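I would love for you to help me understand the pair of lines that follows before we discuss the fold together.
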Amino acid sequence: MDILEGIKQNNFLVVGRAGMDMFPDPPGTKTEDAVNWVCDLGGSSANIAVGICKFGGKASLLTSVSDDAVGRFCTNRLKDYGVDASLVKPVGGEFRNSIALYESRVDDHQSVIYRNGAADFQVTEADVQDVNYSQFGALITAGTVFAAEPSRSATFKAFELAKKAGLPIIFDVDYRPYSWPSPKVAEEVLSKAGAMSDVIVGNDEEFGFMAGGIEKGMDKACELAATSASLVVYKMGEKGAVTFVNGEEIRTGIYPVEALKPTGAGDSFMAGLMSSLADGRELRESILRGSACASIVVAKPGCAPAMPNKKQLEEFLTTHSGVVEI
């Protein structure tokens, strides 16, 4: 399987949640002191899909939303951003969309996530079997989809069907402890997902978690690159990233900015990386462009609305002082 061939089709099936994000306005306001709020689309997979579409690519989101006003809000915002929502299924009963309340500030930043009875965990094997995988070039997902059933089994089934159709699997580890029944379950399930993936993106803590200790994270990334994955990106925050590919290591730095918040960087990195590779750019340049996208997003309020388009990325690269190499 040629992963770049699939990515260059620039038509992605993205599996995972779409949620509602709320953040106090103006920036810097504490949640408990807030009077005015801004509301927009959120959720890791939705953010990635939005970022890809803003760069001119195609993305279809496969998920479930609550059959209520909040679910309809999320679906409408997906469409507003150009994401194909034809695979978004409303579910009734007591299931509800996730809602994230977070602040546009770094010092003493507070995020409150409401995930009880999450609608996106109700994606079923029947849902993923109804997908025509041949119309896509690659599948992208984030680790949250594996935190509960039936979404866990459904996503593993989607992996199998995508592989059968020749699609590369692109996996953002995206470990969120609050979504999982236990760390042990998370370690086992995320390791299984990693072993099935062609491209794996995660930070040092996430790889360390899969390996059983943060000090073992780098070795885990190396192991995956040597055994099952074609491309592994090991992110280290302000220390940059190490990418493992074809037995080589590519070390890249970051674009320093004055951050307004700590959220959304990973989603924007993934969208920028995939879109740059889809445009035919070299791997190192694509990683750096993904890093620039991450810097852009943390310097603005919101996640989906902060995802840059091509013009905004080029302006950032032109006006910014440059990358800090490691």
The first strand starts at residue 11 and ends at 15.
